[in-house]
Every structure is written in C-alpha cells, then in structure tokens.
Design brief:
The protein is mostly helical. It contains two helices and no strands.
Length: 132
Amino acid sequence: LQKELLKYKQEARNLQGIKVPSPQDALQQRLLQQDAAVLQLKQELLRANMDKEELHNQNVDLQRKVEERNRLLAEYKKELCQKDRHLQQQQTKLDEMLRQLSEASYQQVDLERELEHKEALLAHCMKREAEE
C-alpha cells in the first residue's frame, strides 16, 4: 500500500507540474551552475589577460616613444651646446672688431686734428708768401 501511495503521489505531482528533484537531478543542476560559473570566470580571466597584454603593448610603445624623445632631446642639447660655443666665438670676434673700430675712430680723430693743423699752417704760409 505504501508503494502504491508513493506511486500515486508521484503521479499527482507530475500531473500538477510539480516535480520533486531527485538527488541526481539536484547534483546535475549544481554541476551545471558550477560549469556556468567556471565558464564565466574563464571568460573574465581571458578578458583580463587580453587587457593586460594590451596594457603591456601600450607600455612598450610608450617606452619606445620616451626613448626616442630622450634621444632627440640629447641631440638638441648637443646642437644647442655647439651653437652656444659658436655664438661665444662670434661674440668674441665682435668685441675685438668693436675695439679695433674704436681704436680706428680715435686714430681718425687724431689724423683729422693733424690735418686741420697742417691746413692752418699751410694757409698761414700761403698768406705770408702772398704778403711777401
């Protein structure tokens, strides 16, 4: 009678759409959930690894750009030092030329005074000769 009662209860549940999960069904359901969770974790890990690889590639690219800019900066500094030395040389030459120009100007003033003096003497001599 008990077996029949269980059988009829099971039939009634089946007819009502209520299914009593067997231990095997529950275990299979739990395994499916775990598989889905593992699959989701694998997808997240794959995404994280892809993001990590992309960041690594960006880092390598940025490192390369920094090295290139540092190389260019060193070249510019070298060129700037050369131009500074050239400018210093030109400044020295300019200072020397200005000094020479100043000396020449003083000599010109002296020569002009001497010329005026000689012209005055010549005029005086010409005047005396004309009087004689």
